[in-house]
Amino acid sequence: MDKGLARLKSALSGKWMKSTAVHESEKLAEVASYAVSRMILSYMRNRYLTNKFAVAEAKLAHSFFEKEGDGALGTISEELGISVKKENQSDRFVTIHGVNGILFVPLPAYLKFSPRSIDYKLVNRSVSNGFVSVNPHERRRLMEEAVRKKAGEIPQLRGGVPDSIKKAAENLKSDLPKIEPQSTVTFKEGDNPPCMEKLLESLKKHENLNHQSRWALAVYLTARGMSVEQIVSLYSNLPDFNEKITKYQVEHIKKRGYSVPSCATLLSYGICCADCRIGSPLNWKGKVWGAV
Ligand code: SF4
């Protein structure tokens, strides 16, 4: 129980718990602490905390992946639903368990687990015969994403909730952010174009945003007159939020006076999600969603 609680507290502070287990019993306790963390999360039903936990577990898994041999990586990859293959002369693709160089991931698995980043967009990838080529680092990144999704799916606790879980949840509540971050946002429905509204919605749901999305939204909000503090507060919804870095970046955006990216640029980033024909999100005049 103590380890489970510590695991969640580390996740809340944006870190992941380093493994210190040497003996078999210690390793088992670490595995058990993962289960306990999930029980506490299931009882609390707090999306913010669950997303922080999922990101921390994914980063921890990635740190393990980097140390794993090819054979183990292949097995774990299969278990996560990413059956990696390599090119083969006689039979175009064969399942492998670890080969350096270019690897091939089936398109459905790639689409399911690729990070929301411009580098992973299909238009920037080599796709052939239903497979997407990735390098070993990208394969580990897909696996990290698969772990994040898996760790973030918390089933409902069945039966009675043990007192120890309730006590741990009480303990954690005091560590959760006191201010409801989105309370400072005063936009009404229809105030923002669909692309920016979608990013704001993702933030409210504590979902991760890629670098381009964070940057574009911050530039847009700055242009709409939002203060650095308000934007930082809004970004505190992000599961990997770091106040110091976010504040520095938002202040930098304000100081440099970046222009809001055009719709064409946002389209190339994969952020545009409607055909508003206004050239820039700043030209949005409060239309109604159904009309676009
Ligand atoms: S057309 Fe422009 S304003 Fe509309 S969703 Fe796309 S990027 Fe946003």
Description:
- There is one protein chain.
- By secondary structure, this protein is mainly alpha-helical.
- The chain has three domains: 2-56 and 156-173, no CATH class; 70-148, no CATH class; 181-291, no CATH class.
- It contains twelve helices and five strands.
- The protein has a three-stranded antiparallel β-sheet. A two-stranded antiparallel sheet has the order 1-2.
- Strand 4 and strand 5 form a beta hairpin.
- The longest helix is centred in the first third of the chain and has 21 residues, at 24-44.
- The protein binds iron/sulfur cluster (SF4).
- Residues 193-195, 263, 266, 272-276, 278, 281, 284 line the site of iron/sulfur cluster.
The total of helices stands at 12
Order of neighbouring strands in the sheet with most strands: 3-5-4
Q: Shape, please? A: globular
Number of strands: 5
Topology (SSEs and partners):
Elements: H1 2-12, H2 24-44, H3 47-65, H4 70-79, E1 85-87, E2 93-95, E3 103-106, H5 107-113, E4 127-128, E5 131-134, H6 136-152, H7 163-173, H8 194-204, H9 211-223, H10 228-235, H11 243-256, H12 263-269
Antiparallel strand pairs: 1-2, 3-5, 4-5
Iron/sulfur cluster (SF4) is lined by residues 193-195, 263, 266, 272-276, 278, 281, 284.
